[in-house]
């Protein structure tokens, strides 16, 4: 493990400079920046277990352990925090309701193992094959459908306490447009705080579990159950999440490489392996699946500090925080109205991220193959299509993801064979300035 070099005087970052992954500021500043990373990841990381019914403290523990494992596997050269992935919410919610937590954890483990295997392939064969398998129109559709598939869950919570939910939702939106920089990036967390305060005033919170929880203690562990009937049906439901995690990790590595050093792209395979191992470990013992966090890229961009030392601090803080069951009980006390308000925004944002992939890559939706790849996948996910053969059932996410892949690749093959012009012709040409005021 390399030792970090002290950047400059250890206190400041000169204009135009960045603190590289193998550098650090003095330990006081490094600890402070590590604490910022904890705050940045916390709002999203605790929401996933709250929404899925998983223990919050356990998720925080494996989030911290996963971050330290990520740093080790990537040889301390790739700054990243591994927090809870929203891509797991839909399959975990469905699997827990139908088969129980053990089967849901088995699905998370399966995703982690597959992601690690893909990481080994990428490390030795490169990443071009992933771009061919999952071009922008397919990648965008799969990310979007996972978010939009959750819309009924948001509505179920929203209608239980509509006033609290409305105030929470309005607060999230207001903070996102009112604040600049870091506060704007944690608008979802701030919206939850406001909604929670409203729920306290309205008497909608039960604190009995908080009072009974000890201040210090080990998190609650659960084991993945591969032997339960129906578990293998559940695992099929989780497989599309692998594609989302690939996209998130690749995007993270490219983002960090752009801001620091292009050679970091060589660690893409290691990043996938590390996230796969962290997800496998979390799923095996009761935590949520992990992914690299864009919130923490925001902190790095704002501070211009890309030191991996700050992430060692952040991961250690998360582990310490997980050792307080009372903290976990407080988060579990969040009422359905707050969850309904925040998830109305959050699940929609997951969908919009998928659409942003289409926009950023200028997907040509005048081509029928692209039209039907997105259209069919989204309708299947939103409507909740299922197919069942005896005991084996495929849910909406796996069906919609499979539909996107089949329509795109088979449709392209037929269109090109026939020369019909219906195939994906690549990104539409840029005409004039793309976005913004030319003046």
From TrEMBL:
Q: Which Pfam families match?
A: Xan_ur_permease
Question: Could you tell me the keywords of this UniProt record?
Answer: Membrane, Transmembrane, Transmembrane helix, Transport
- Topology term for the membrane: Multi-pass membrane protein
Q: What are the recorded GO MF terms, alphabetically?
A: xanthine transmembrane transporter activity
Q: Which positions, given as ranges, span the membrane?
A: 54-73, 80-98, 104-130, 137-155, 161-179, 186-203, 223-246, 309-331, 337-357, 369-386, 392-410
Primary place of residence? membrane
InterPro entries in the record, alphabetically? NCS2 (IPR006043), Xan_ur_permease (IPR006042)
- Places the protein is found: Membrane
Instruction: Give a GO cellular-component term.
Output: plasma membrane
Query: Would I find Endoplasmic reticulum among this entry's keywords?
Result: no
Tell me the protein family, please: Belongs to the nucleobase:cation symporter-2 (NCS2) (TC 2.A.40) family.
Protein name per the record: Nucleobase:cation symporter-2, NCS2 family
